[in-house]
Specification:
By secondary structure, the chain is an alpha/beta fold. It contains three helices and four strands. Helix 1 crosses helix 2.
């Protein structure tokens, strides 16, 4: 099975980091978090981190733009149904 789209549950530090490297590797990423504001914050953090990488010439601005274009948010877990791989990185609350 070929993996094309990766779903990530949890848009915090670890989920954002996974989304970051996954998108840079060329995979489409669907990011979900129970708090929609966390998704927006996570994508903004990813963008800032990639901007730093581009500024230090670790990636090109084109790499950054392409990778950010591969990251999308889904408002509910049903949106992850079409993913080829799902990674859970959500905080557990007992």
């Amino acid at each position: 099975m070929k993996i094309e789209t990766v779903g990530i549950i949890g848009a915090g530090q670890m989920g954002g980091g996974i989304a970051h490297v996954t998108a840079l590797a060329g995979y489409n990423v669907l990011l979900f978090d129970i708090a929609p504001a966390n998704i927006e914050k996570g994508i903004a953090t990813i963008s800032g981190n990639m901007a730093r990488q581009a500024a230090s010439e670790k990636i090109t601005e084109s790499d950054r733009s392409d990778a950010l274009g591969r990251i999308a948010a889904t408002p509910d877990m049903d949106g992850l149904a079409a993913c080829d791989l799902i990674i859970e990185s959500a905080t557990e609350k007992e």
